[in-house]
Every structure is written in C-alpha cells, then in structure tokens.
C-alpha cells in the first residue's frame, strides 16, 4: 500500500520481487478497494499486463532503467492507443468508445523506460473544464472518487450547484 517506485525497483534489482508479482498485487488491491474509492476508471486486460511483466522480468539487466517493471496509472485524459487495452474517455460517456490513433508522447516515454501502463485513473470529467455544478473528482464514467486518506466519504449536498460539498466522517472505507 505504501511502496514507492524506488523501493519496488530495489526489490526487483535484488530479485526478491518480480514484475509479474507487482502487477498481480496491484490488480488485487484495485479489485479490493476500487469499488469504494472509484480511483481507477479502468485497467488494461490482465493478459496484456502479465505478458508485458513477463517480458520485462526476462529482460532485466543491470542497466535497466529506473521505471523498468514499475506499474503506472495515467489520468484518463492521456491518450493511449487501443493496443494497450485502454480507452481515453476524459471521464465522459461521449468519449467512451473513442480510440486515439497514437500514444501521447508521455506514454511513449514511459513505455521506453520500461514502465507498465496498468490503467487509467478516474478524474473530474473533462478535467473539470465543463463541469459547472459538478463536484471535483466526479465523472460520468468512473463516478465520484473518494480519498483513501480521509476517513469518511464524499457526499453530494443539496446545493451542489453552488459547489457546496461536505465530507461525511461517519462512513468508513
């Protein structure tokens, strides 16, 4: 839950952890916690993720980059080509079946560095650009995100139009 990219890389370098184990662990954590926190809007198909993880495990050398085998979540407004098994919706139902023709340059750089694009993180629809009256962290595709660091949850108030939102401290994750 609190692993850093650096600590994962050190374990990979020491051979005490594999890329496959990291991917499986993160997918299990997403399956366990995401129904409550709605932080991940989608993950790539497990078969694709494990295929990349196995290939990176086999290609591990002393000159592997700092991100070699490290899973990454992208915001859902960063383009990924369909071959990665992920869409790019910006949290909007209008883009649910959109298929970008190319990866964003950021994605190409992450892939070249050996990162594993695990999935897309939920976000305010259209990065809150068109969200008049919507609370931060809400999208039509992913729902309302919740903080894993604040005990309680987000609740719509009766006056959402005035951006009056409140946090309930009585609901626990």
Characterization of the model:
With 173 residues, this protein is α+β, with helices and mostly antiparallel strands. It has a single domain, classed as Alpha-Beta Complex (Amidase signature (AS) enzymes), CATH 3.90.1300. It contains 4 helices and 7 strands; from the N terminus they run ααβαβαβββββ. The strands form 3 sheets. Strands 1-3-2 form a 3-stranded mixed beta sheet. β2 (71-75), α4 (105-112) and β3 (116-121) form a beta-alpha-beta unit. The longest helix is centred in the first third of the chain and has 19 residues, at 19-37. The radius of gyration is 18 Å and the shape is globular. Residues 158-173 have low confidence and may be disordered.
- How far is the N terminus from the C terminus? 15 Å
- So how many helices? 4
Molecular shape: globular
Structural class: alpha+beta
Radius of gyration: 18 Å
Largest sheet: 3 strands, mixed
**Whole-number tally of structural domains:** 1
The percentage of residues in β strands lies in 5-15%
CATH architecture: Alpha-Beta Complex
CATH fold name: Amidase signature (AS) enzymes
* Secondary structure: number of strands: 7
Mean pLDDT: 84
Which residues form runs of ≥5 with pLDDT under 50?
158-173
Q: Residue share in helices?
A: 25-40%
What is the H level of CATH, i.e. the homologous superfamily?
Answer: Amidase signature (AS) domain
CATH class: Alpha Beta
Features:
3-stranded mixed β-sheet, 173 residues, alpha+beta, two-stranded antiparallel sheet, Amidase signature (AS) enzymes, globular
